[in-house]
Amino acid sequence: MKPARKVVLLPLGSFEQHGPHLRLTTDSDIVTAVARGVEALRPEKVLCLPTLWPGHSTHHAFFPGTLSVGQMPYMQLVIELCRSVVNMGGTKVFLLNGHGGNDVPVRAAMRELKSQSPRVRFVFASYWSLAAESIKRVRKSGPGGLGHACEMETSIMLHLCPDRLKMSLAKRDGPRHVDRYRKADMQ
Question: Could you tell me which residues are beta bridge partners of residue 96?
Fold first, then answer.
């Protein structure tokens, strides 16, 4: 392994409820599949690490089965993992996010990492942002239809592992409010 010559890809997931039809590992399953797919397409350029499955999910803590790491410890965990990559000689680190709740703590961790290791290139993005144009072309739902345990996550999980879903429990749902100042859709 020569991390200095590759982009070290760290997928970030979560372990939380995803409605009655999807598994607790949905975010981790999806981001792992995306990250491993990227590595398979470019094995000479990408080194995929195991998915960091604990996420910052305090907003789902009242649902049974959710395991969450607080914001500050999550930031520190991301920082320490990235420092480990840098200590092994990594110069390009890509944090690929699969859970919306990770966004704020990871962005804060990125600021610290970039100031501590200015010669290392740190990049952070969520898979749904990178795939926004493709998602826009295939989505069936209107505004509010892409969020949590939504059309997108359900469709991806049906593709990845259809036997792990309980589609008989799925229902059309989502935010019903109409407020131009409140983001109610991932896209």
Answer: 11, 125
pLDDT beyond 60 at 177: no
Other CB atoms within a 10 A radius of the CB of residue 67 amount to 14
Domains of the chain, by residue range, sit at: 3-130+137-169
What pLDDT score does 153 carry? 79
Q: Which architecture, in CATH terms, is 3-130+137-169?
A: 3-Layer(aba) Sandwich (3.40)
The per-residue DSSP string of 8-35 comes to: EEEEE--B--BTTTB-TTHHHHHHHHHH
Six token digits for residue 149: 């345990």
pLDDT of residue 43: 96
Given this model, what pLDDT does residue 173 score? 60
Half-sphere exposure of 114 (CA within 13 A, CB side): 11
> Starting at the edge strand that comes first in sequence, how are the strands of the sheet with 7-12 ordered?
46-48, 7-12, 92-97, 121-126
